[in-house]
Amino acid sequence: MLRRINGILEPSLKHIQFKNSQWICVSSTQFKAKSFSTSPPKPEVQVKKNVSKAMKAYLERAREHDEFMKQQTLEFQIGKRHLANMMGENPDTFTQEDVDHAIKYLFPSGLFEKKARPFMRPPEEVFPQRKAAEFDETGRPYHFLFYTGRPNFYKLMHDIVDHINDAYKFEDTMIRKGIKPDPNLALELSGYQWSDKASLEKELVEGIGDKDYEAFIATMERLCDLPYSYRSKDFIFKYRKPLMSHEQTYQAPRPQYDADGRAFITTYECLRKRARGHVTIRAPGTGKITINNEEITYFKDVQPREQMSKDAL
Amino acid sequence: YPSYYIKPVHKKEVQDELAKSGELQKLVHMPTRAALNDQTCSPAQDDLINLFINYIMRDGLKVLARDLVERAFENIKRIQLEKYHKCASEEDKQKIELNPRVIFHQAVENCKPILNLTPIKRGGVRYQVPVPITPKRSQFLSMKWLIAAAKEKDSKVRFHHQLALELIDAANNRGRVVKRKQDLHRQCEANRAYAHYRWS
């Protein structure tokens, strides 16, 4: 049927300009009325109907998702309180950590894959985030970069460039005054790495290509290299993840005291390759070394003994 | 280990240097590999000697390799002491080096070649072209030649004894290994007309 419509339309196609390039499958009666007129048919009415249908479906989906999330959050809160009751804890002061402990206790699992084990977490972490309605009923998008296809990502790039330009302007004013940048205030970037592609995608709720991610890293590095980048510290550190869990400060173990009043500490499970050992150090010490109730000659070979010696053996 | 794990700095002096220059701060947060069994923080550690022991080692027999090198050093000490006590004047006594490690370092230094010959094919003919080599490569060649020379011996002579003799000779700039290096340099000098074949 569409082909027959095409056949009728061809002579008048030159006069017709459609707003969108989509072919509209309209009933043949309407076209019979218009196909032989020279004036361009008014497509606004038809276009508006179709956009509003798509708009309707879109809004419907966004609303459903919102409602679903609300429902899930409510269920999660109620479930948390039930769980606290079950465990005999105060429901008001029941944190996510306590929830995890409770689930581990109630549903012990021996599965090797930690992600496959049972868990109970707020719905924002469990269900993939979706964007809210991106345009209103008239079809006009809210975000000024909507037509790039990835507004959040490009907005982020623009923000970085804004910060760079700010830093340049500030540097100019400082040079005019004759003040040099303070080296103590410079950014401390060691111990952190840029958030990886997956977490960036999650934050932006958009897919990012590899080249775009590299461009993001390059631009951020450019910002960090500037002398006055410390002014944008908060912005930069939003996208920095700690390298090792050095946020947990190492707490040195407390020494225990034996019958003679001498302090000693035992470290369990010291590993090297397949070897496992427990080491006890006593203070004040005599300098004696005992390994499995033997002297240092427990090591038949000379090489392991060298660590202890000041001179070459 | 995953590729981003860095090698540890096992020497106290190197760590202090890094702390001064400020590099240490960057390395503190990097995931690190475990130190090897022959890397200690003892001040008596010598990385070059450990490398030499590894080159001597065959089939993973580290104990044997270490034993050979220890005996070679002992032999060096004995030979040098003999020379020392046979000396008449004080001046000659001062000149004799008694520390086997110092002799070893000197020997390796004296045997390092600067250029090497590589075969390059031009017009169907393979020319031996003199080519510069990196310091690490030259150090490797020096140690390899020392070991090879120590192996070329009479079957009744022990390897550690021959190695001791080779090291003493090389430290005094004579002997087979230094001759091999000088022959190589002479060949490079002779072939210097082909040097431009490196870039063609």
From TrEMBL, chain A:
Keywords associated with the record: Ribonucleoprotein, Ribosomal protein
The protein's name in its UniProt record: 28S ribosomal protein S9, mitochondrial
Record carries keyword Ribosomal protein: yes
Keyword Ribonucleoprotein included in the entry's annotation: yes
Taxonomic source organism: Asbolus verrucosus
Recorded GO CC terms: ribosome
TrEMBL record, chain B:
Gene3D superfamilies: Ribosomal protein S7 domain
Cellular component aspect of the GO annotation: mitochondrial inner membrane; mitochondrial matrix; ribosomal subunit
Domain of life: Eukaryota
GO terms, biological process: translation
Entry-linked CDD domains: uS7_Mitochondria_Mammalian
Domain (Small ribosomal subunit protein uS7): residue spans on this chain: 35-192
Membrane spanning stretches: none
Record's subcellular location: Mitochondrion
Record key words, sorted: Mitochondrion, Ribonucleoprotein, Ribosomal protein, Transit peptide
Pfam family, one: Ribosomal_S7
InterPro entries assigned: Ribosomal_uS7, Ribosomal_uS7_dom, Ribosomal_uS7_dom_sf
Recorded family membership: Belongs to the universal ribosomal protein uS7 family.
Name of protein: Small ribosomal subunit protein uS7m
Organism: Asbolus verrucosus
